[in-house]
Please model this.
Amino acid sequence: MTFLIHPAIPPVRIKRIILATGCRCELCGKEILAADMDVHTIGAAGDKTGEAIAGLEREILVLCPRCHQDVHEQGTGEEEQRALLSFRKPEVIQEIRKILSTKQKPYVPPEVDLETAYSDVTDLRPH
Ligand SMILES: [Zn+2]
Ligand SMILES: [Zn+2]
Model:
C-alpha cells in the first residue's frame, strides 16, 4: 500500500531525508533499504502543495512500510506521532532542516525525445 508523501517536498529531498536518518525507522528502529523507506506526514498532508518546506522537519516521520501502515491503520494519534520526533537525534534534525531549507533549483525540462517531438508535430497537422 502506498501513502501520500508530503506534496510540497520534492522526491529527491525525500530520498535525502531518508538517508539523513540512516535509513532507520523512527518508530521501530529497524534499518532497511532507503528505497523501501516511507516518509510519513504528521497530520493532514492534504493541500500543502506549494507551501514553504523549510521547517517541515517537525511534520514528517521516516518510517518502514510496516510501521507506516500501522500508523495509518491503527489511527495513531497526532500527539503520539509527534512524540516520536523527540527521539530524533540532534544531528539528524540539523541535516533534515538543511535539506528542507536549501533553495530549490529551477525546474529543468527533460531533454526532448526527437521521436516523440516528431509525432507531436504530425499530430498537429490538419487532417
Ligand atoms: Zn518501523
Ligand atoms: Zn503516512
User: Anything to note?
Assistant: The CA atoms of residues 54 and 101 lie 5 Å apart. Residues 11-124 form one domain. The pocket of zinc ion (ligand 2) is lined by residues 3, 40-41, 68, 72 (CB under 6 Å).
